[in-house]
Design a protein that fits this description.
The protein has 11 helices and 30 strands. The strands form 8 sheets. Strands 1, 2, 3, 6, 10 and 11 form a 6-stranded mixed β-sheet that branches. The relative contact order is 0.11.
Length: about 575
């Protein structure tokens, strides 16, 4: 059955979101879905964001019958807002940062290990299962609103675009796809996240973006989210008299973000409380982390507020009577976050590399050095050194890649004091390298760092007419589908490969196509479009040729396969070892 909708899902470390458009909608109107979830016992709320938290309820945690959802009267797990709230009070039953666990190669990511180091009586899930639970919640929410009558609009039958960090390795990508499969999503394409924020800025500027950047400019995209930090460089070049935006460098996968900052703030309050005679154990420290996250976000959103209360519950019989309050001060944010995570450093000062860091006591192998500015120094020092793009971007006297503009993305960068500090550090490096400092015009203003910032972009033939379209999906806000409806007078052929001995998506397969006009070659690979994972189907332009005379496939398993003549202007599915299985 053909997909009725194109659905974009941002599976985030801290929040997830879903948006969609109808395939038949000529205007490409994108709608942000409101996801039903428990806000409190007996209270279902509809939110544009689904907090990426899973809570394992105990037998006496909630009144009987108080956790019902529109599609399930007694869910096994709590997903979303209520999970986040209750988990802050009882972190031993909370699963958080499942997305970061998916990239943790040192653990068995399919084993039931979460909540990390929880008591034996708490049901455990794997990082893959936790991710699948979030996706299943969104699938059930979708079905309850779009397919309650049992029609063919169920989410599992739609084409789904699912986001992953650009720096995810192949195993983490495969595990994400496995989670989607477990959740009942049958048609999934992965999209990469970090640099697609630049598309959001372009879309918000309309045609005015050409007035802000010019040929020779180099844009640094700095994306600091809940679990990761990603850096990218985009060069502005010229081809045929037109401006062309070209991604020239992508940083490594850095497990460093808002989670680390929350822990640092929790450690600060732990010191204050222990100085007052309180004893904080591991689970209470985790609870402080979640409380500090909420307090941090409140202070960032209310710049005139100077403090926010943080509550720590007691344990056992002292659960209520032992409640203790502390205050998170704005000066704590400035000192811990600004000086600890965005210190003024020289551009030659590289991050420390140790095998263990303090944050690993909570299970995840986060970056040993918390200084994001040091990681940025390493990225700019190593970017473009030996690659083919080395000659098109400006460099300083020391060889440092020197951006002309900066664009911020990610919820952490909502804090103006953090953005200001990073720009200050960058300007110091630029002046030392012989360039002018960045002014306000060179700090590109993103429309919204958390809700309206595009998290992924990919090309695909969404309307199945033989030309490629572009979808920009957003986190918690409207996405934008740019349909290629200018008219296609030439012939085409689209091939989708399905591996059997090879990996299911046939990543790494090489396809050679012959037609009357000549020979073409394409490779199935991830991260294939600008900053993004595009449709894994391969579209060949045939010009005026009415058919492909022969197709040769070199599968990743080493198998060679040949398919004879295929007529143009059709979609063809080829399964490894079985030939053409669908048209």
């Amino acid at each position: 059955m053909d997909s009725e909708f194109i659905v974009g899902i941002d599976l985030g470390t801290t929040n997830s979101a879903l948006s969609y458009c109808e395939v038949a909608d000529e205007g490409g109107q994108i709608t942000g879905e409101k996801i039903p979830q428990l806000a409190n016992p007996h209270e279902v709320a509809y939110r544009t964001l689904l907090p990426s938290f899973l809570y394992v309820p105990g037998e006496l945690d909630f009144p009987a019958g108080s956790l019902g959802l529109p599609w399930d009267d007694a869910p096994k797990f709590i997903i979303g807002e209520l999970a986040s709230k209750r988990g802050a009070e009882n972190p031993a039953r909370l699963v958080a940062s499942a997305k970061s666990w998916l990239s943790h190669a040192a653990v068995n990511r399919t084993a039931s290990i979460l909540p990390w180091q929880a008591p034996d009586e708490v049901i455990k899930v794997s990082p893959v299962e936790a991710s699948a639970q979030y996706l299943q919640h969104m699938r059930s929410a979708w079905d309850s609103q779009h397919a309650s009558d049992g029609s063919g609009s169920r989410l599992g039958q739609q084409d789904v675009l699912l986001t992953v960090p650009a720096s995810f390795d192949e195993e983490a990508r495969e595990l994400t796809l496995r989670a989607a499969e477990q959740a009942g999503l049958e048609h999934v394409t992965l999209l990469e996240e970090p640099q697609a924020a630049f598309y959001s800025w372009l879309e918000s500027q309309g045609d005015n973006w050409r007035k802000s950047i010019k040929v020779g400019d180099l844009v640094l995209v700095c994306d600091v989210g809940g679990g990761t930090t990603d850096f990218s460089l985009i060069a502005v070049t010229e081809e045929g008299g037109d401006l062309v935006l070209k991604r020239v460098a992508v940083g490594e996968h850095i497990l460093l973000g808002g989670d680390n900052m929350d822990l640092a703030l929790a450690r600060l309050l732990q010191q204050k409380l222990e100085a007052e005679g309180h004893r904080i154990d591991t689970y209470q420290l985790q609870g402080l982390c979640y409380q500090c996250r909420a307090a941090k976000e409140y202070l960032f959103e209310h710049p005139k507020s100077q403090k926010q209360d943080v509550t720590m519950l007691g344990k056992g019989r002292k659960l209520v009577g032992g409640t203790t309050k502390a205050e998170l001060l704005r000066e704590d944010l400035d000192r811990v976050l600004v000086e600890g995570f965005f210190p003024q450093v020289a551009n030659a000062e590289m991050p420390l590399r140790r095998r263990r860091s303090g944050f690993q006591e909570l299970g995840l192998p986060y970056a040993a050095d918390a200084a994001i500015t040091k990681h940025l120094a390493r990225f700019l020092s190593q970017a473009l050194q030996n690659g083919p793009e080395a000659g098109i971007a400006r460099r300083g006297k020391s060889g440092l890649a020197c951006p002309t503009h900066v664009l911020f993305n990610g919820g952490v960068m909502k804090g103006a004091v953090l953005r200001d500090r990073l720009v200050s550090v960058l300007n110091r490096w630029l002046t030392e390298e012989g360039f002018e400092a960045l002014g306000p015009a060179q700090v590109l203003q993103a429309p919204d760092l958390e809700h309206a910032v595009a998290r992924g972009a990919a090309y695909a033939d969404f309307d199945r007419d033989g030309d490629l379209d572009i979808l920009m999906s957003t986190n918690g806000g409207p996405a934008c589908l740019l349909r290629n409806d200018g008219g296609n007078r030439n012939h085409w052929l689209t091939l989708r490969l399905v591996g059997t001995r090879s990996n299911r998506d046939a990543i790494g397969a090489v396809v050679r196509l012959e037609s009357a006009s000549g020979r073409q070659m394409q490779t199935v690979h991830s991260g294939s479009s600008y900053c993004s994972q595009s449709d894994l189907a391969l579209t060949f332009g045939l010009g005026q040729d009415p058919a492909a005379t022969a197709i040769e496939i070199a599968w990743p398993s080493g198998t060679q396969e040949r398919v004879s003549r295929l007529e143009a202007n059709q979609f063809v599915t080829i399964r490894e070892g079985a030939g053409v299985v669908g048209r």
